[in-house]
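Quick illustration, no need to memorize.
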Amino acid sequence: MAKSVVVGARPDPYSGHMNRRSRVASVIALSVISLMGLTGCGPGGGAGGSPTVVPPVVERPTAAVSPSPTPSGPVPAFVVISAHGVGVGDSDSRQIADVPFTTDLARAAAQLTTAMGTAPTVIPVPATPCQAATSIYDWGGLQITFDPYMTDIGDTQFVATVTATHTAAGLELDGPYNQTVGMSLADVLSHVPGSVSGDRGEGHIEALLDPQEDNLWGVVMTFTAGVADGFHAPGVYIVGHGFCEAGT
């Protein structure tokens, strides 16, 4: 992933707070000193006077101070798509999960559900002459599914498609080098090393990010009027698809 890994130190939950037991002991000591002073100076305190009774000072137990609760694990903040898989990271760019495209579709959906903390909508896909019945797993802005035309590309078992800047649950959706939906073609080409663009005809402009095998495939970003409207991976550049051996 393009994001760097930064591990920050956990702050001390007690920092800046005085120990409550020490504070109570100080108050008690001051009270005893004040009462002793009053005993020597008050009425009847001299020779032959009635003794002054000083009530004992009892230290009352104080409630224990518990540390503030901390999250039980990393909180997902973004999803990043590369030519080889889907990654999930937290706000400090620490990796929560990395799911290669060689992972079985159902297992990939389960792993991403756990990493992202939200369950997808499952959309049934009926069987065709080229594939058995399958499903689309949709998190809103991010979908994964099986594509029989892509199995010859790196033994791909699922394809990821992004159509928004964030999932329905608010996780940021990024391509390589933090490129996302809404970026201009010029910006993508200037900030993604090795990226190229081409015209598939009828105004269908594509850019290839994270190119593989002499620009044959990678992350394919599509553009309308010079602005990215989505990207998918792995995708075949310009040609549009691999080939299904079962035919159509």
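The first strand starts at residue 76 and ends at 81.
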